[in-house]
Write a structure and sequence with these properties.
The complex is a heterodimer of chains A (185) and B (214). Chain A is mainly α and 185 residues long. In chain A, 82% of the residues lie in helices and 0% in strands. Chain A folds into 2 domains: 103 residues, no CATH class; 70 residues. In chain B, strand 3 and strand 4 form a beta hairpin. Classes of the chains: A mainly alpha (185), B mainly alpha (214).
Chain lengths: 185, 214
């Protein structure tokens, strides 16, 4: 059954292709304003603008400044910078808006195995990431003068923990899935 | 090394989406994905994600992130590394909004596919001469080969996507992108190579039963 999430995700993919196929800044500006209107309607405008800016400012600054620097040696097209910055900003904001409104797990629900793989990977990445940050904070709080020796020692201990966790958690999950009748093998 | 959206043209990313789809289909068809493999691939993706979070301290107080591609490919297998790292890239792009959706194909082919297989085959070829050097070279190649592919994709944009001689997407030519990406990644590859040697030795020694049985 086609759900709202499938339609929105399909629309998002079509708009990605459209926004990278049209090279008129006016068209992309109109699309950005439309996105801002949708975001404002759902009280997400400030959050999405901040998130988008934070996500791309470094890459755009490097490319834009390098392009301007290239202009010292050969002729450049300043309008290109407007097009590039506008397009990258619009596409990134559209992705963040899509993430707020679309349930991607439901989009992938056409395949049971794919859904379970993505769901499990997503949840495990979250858990591993949080634990890794705790390891990093622990290392920082216990090491007054960090050096290569202490860094390697901490890194090796961290990786033993995570490889162990990888091997054991996968067994636990698969036993849990089997016991609940998820697989027929 | 991830490329954000908007830097490459549809004439590049659409075919690369297709190639990525084919590679996934082949990998999926080759292995009968059963319960244990699904959970293992999921936790391996999480491990790959953690490896990518490891910051290597560099002189001058800065740091750079490890890719961990070679380590995963050598410890498990290039096919598993391809699957796990692909999953990380997809989740980063689609769920966290990091790395670009249009550029997902480029990122998967560069980092997950070329990174894993180049590291694995480099090690396989060089291990007969010197194991330590083979491990180091695998780590280095796992970092450098993807960067060369990304440099190529970015560098051809002014050729294949321009209007009246003016760029529409990434503006720098092949020469510039190759130098800009190759030099830092070749240097970072040294740190990646050293860590691959140290961590591979340490992990295979501590998990002897697991990695010598595979």
């Amino acid at each position: 059954m086609i759900h709202k999430d499938h339609l929105l995700f399909g629309l998002y993919i079509v708009m990605l292709v459209v926004l990278t196929s049209v090279h008129r800044p006016l068209f992309i500006t109109a699309a950005l304003l439309l996105l801002c209107a949708v975001a404002a309607y759902t009280d997400l405008l400030t959050l999405l603008l901040k998130r988008t800016f934070k996500s791309i400012w470094a890459a755009l600054a490097v490319i834009s400044l390098s392009y301007l620097a290239m202009g010292l040696f050969k002729p450049i097209d300043p309008a290109f910078l407007l097009l590039l910055n506008l397009r990258v900003f619009t596409l990134t904001m559209m992705t963040f808006l899509m993430l707020e409104h679309v349930n991607l797990f439901r989009v992938l629900s056409f395949s049971k195995k794919l859904t379970s793989l993505v769901t499990l990977s997503f949840s495990q990445i979250h858990i591993f990431r949080r634990t890794f940050v705790e390891f990093q904070l622990g290392y920082a709080s216990r090491t007054a003068r960090p050096g290569w020796r202490s860094y390697l020692k901490a890194l090796r201990a961290t990786l033993v923990y995570f490889v162990n966790k990888t091997l054991h958690t996968s067994q636990e999950i698969s036993l849990g899935m089997k016991s609940r009748g998820f697989f027929h093998d | 090394m991830h490329i954000p959206d908007g830097f490459i043209s549809p004439t590049t990313y659409l075919p690369l989406w297709g190639v990525t789809g084919l590679l996934w289909y082949r990998a999926f068809k080759k292995s009968t994905v059963e319960s244990e493999q699904i959970s293992f691939l999921a936790t391996l993706s999480a491990l790959s994600f953690v490896l990518m979070m490891i910051a290597v301290p560099l002189p001058g107080g800065t740091s750079a992130h490890l890719s961990g591609v070679a380590l995963i490919a050598l410890l498990f297998s290039p096919a598993l590394a391809f699957g796990a790292i692909s999953m990380v890239i997809v989740i980063e792009a689609l769920f966290f909004g990091e790395g670009g959706v249009t550029t997902m194909g480029v990122n998967v082919i560069a980092i997950a596919f070329l990174g894993s297989y180049s590291a694995y085959y480099t090690h396989r070829f060089l291990a007969r001469f010197n194991e330590t050097f083979a491990l180091f070279a695998a780590g280095w190649m796992g970092m450098v080969i993807p960067s060369l592919f990304v440099a190529f994709i970015l560098g051809i944009q002014p050729i294949i996507a321009s209007m009246e001689g003016k760029p529409l997407f990434f503006p720098f030519d092949l020469h510039t992108t190759t130098l800009a990406l190759l030099i830092p990644h070749a240097l970072l590859g040294i740190a990646e190579g050293i860590l691959t040697v140290v961590l591979y030795r340490f992990l295979t020694k501590n998990f002897k039963r697991v990695f010598h049985d595979t």
